[in-house]
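Here is one chain, start to finish.
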Amino acid sequence: MSQQKRRSNTKMVPVPSHSIVPERDVNDIPVLETRHLGIEFGGLKAVDDFNLTIGRTEIAGLIGPNGAGKTTVFNLLTKVYEPTTGAALIDGIDTHGMTTVQTARMGVARTFQNIRLFDNMTVEENVRIGLHNQIKYDMFTGILRLPRYWKQEKRQHERALEMLGIFDMQDMANERAGSLPYGVQRRLEIVRALATNPKLLLLDEPAAGMNPRETEELMEIIARIRDQFQIAILLIEHDMNLVMGVCEGICVLNFGRVIAKGTADEIQNNPVVIEAYLGRKKEAAV
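Its structure:
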C-alpha cells in the first residue's frame, strides 16, 4: 500500500518538548504544541496533562477507547472549551483567551464526528462558506453590488470549483449537499474545511460509517491533502488500518491522560496500549 510505504519511510526525530516530529519538520516551529493541557467538568478531569507536538507537515493520530477524551481535546484546540490548565500554541502563539473564530483565523480547521453540512444548500455553496474568511469587500460594497463585489464573487466561484476539482467533485457543484452519498458528504466536509486555508486540519473520525472501499479512498485523500497543501493533519479514528497506514506519529489517550506516544510500529507493539485499547493478548491455551 502506498500510504503504508509513505508512513514507514518517515524518520521521526526528537524535539526539545520531549516529543517526536518528522525529520523534514524538525527545523520549523511546530504547527501545534500543547503543554500540560487539561480541563475539568464539575471536578472530573476529562483531559489531564495532555502534551503533544505536531510538525508542520505531519499526519498524526489521536486514538483511544470511547470516552478517553479525544473529542474534548479537539474542542480545546478549537476553543469550544477554554482549558482549565495548560496551554495550546499554534505557530508558537498561545491561544489562551481566543475565540473559536480567532483560532480558525490562525489556521485551525476541523470536521466533526457527525457530518455538519448545510443539507439544503448546494455543494458549491457549502464550500463557499469555508471561503468566507477570504472575502475582500465590505458590507457597503456587498449591499450596493459594486464592481468589486462581482469580481470577488467570480473569484469565490472559481476557487470553490478548483477546490472541488481536487477531489473530482466539480461536476457535483450544483447538487444539493443532503442528497449526496454518505462517503461523498464526508469528502465535502473535508473540502469545506480546507477552503478556510488551514495550517492544521483536525479530522474527527473521518472514516465513521464508511465501507472498506471508501476508507481506502479516504486514506489516499488524507495523504494527498498533506502532500498538495503542505499542512499538518491530526485525526481521531477507530479504524486502526487507516491510522496505522497513514499516521506518522500517534498519541494514545485513556481516561483523559496520554499513555503512549510514538510511531505506528511502536504503538502497535506497546503492551500498555495493547491492554488498554488494541485488545489484551490472549494467553495461549494450555
